[in-house]
Amino acid sequence: MLTINELQKTFTIHHLQNTFTALNNISLHVKEGGFLGIVGKSGSGKSTVLKSIYRTYEPQSGEILFHSEAFGMIDLLKASPRQIVYLRKYEIGYVSQFLNVMPRTTALELVTQSLLDIGIKRHDAVTRAKEALTHFDLEETLWNSYPNNFSGGEKLRLNIACAIVKQPRLLLLDEPTASLDETSKIKVRESIEKLKAQGTTLVGIFHDLEFMDGLCDEIFTMEKYVKGEIA
Q1: CATH superfamily of 2-230
Q2: What is the pLDDT of residues 104-147, one digit of tens each?
Q3: Strands (E), the chain
Q4: In the chain, where are the structural domains located?
């Protein structure tokens, strides 16, 4: 489903006139329907890997081969902007710790729109959106509220609902349980297990190693790849 070959990513801090290596020849493979967990200390480049797959970041070299339903085997680093938009809409989901939304869009509208985007009829989309919000313990009194005033945990649960409800072929999880209580973590785990059973391929970052236990098929450790500074 996903193969990364010799991925190299650097960042330049111009006012310091320094370039830092974030990813140093990263190579990994995720089989279709599998779950790869990425572990490593803070600053080791875990999120950079996910953002490179999602094309939020553009690495300097390497390749990210994705078996797309629409385009066949495609290198995400060479995909056109139009192709990336399509893949984000229909095939690749991303869950981060943060939620950036239009200020006057309610929680229910956000999840409903995720389903409308992939062609679900409005009546069914609203029904499924409500089921997702209920599953992730977002109180019904919040459904027609704007998420800007939600707590961190509520925003994160909404973010997860928006991504998971679409049942993407590939789901990227960037610390999706970071600010959740134990009950909410169980809900997230149940949803991940259900997606995996349905054939979704997953790549995730978790600091909670107990949460990962029995969930991931393989573990990739970032410390094997040394970061450094380029003069």
Answers
A1: P-loop containing nucleotide triphosphate hydrolases (3.40.50.300)
A2: 889 999 999 999 999 999 999 999 999 999 988 889 999 999 88
A3: 2-13, 18-30, 35-39, 61-68, 72-75, 92-95, 170-174, 201-205, 218-221, 228-230
A4: 2-230
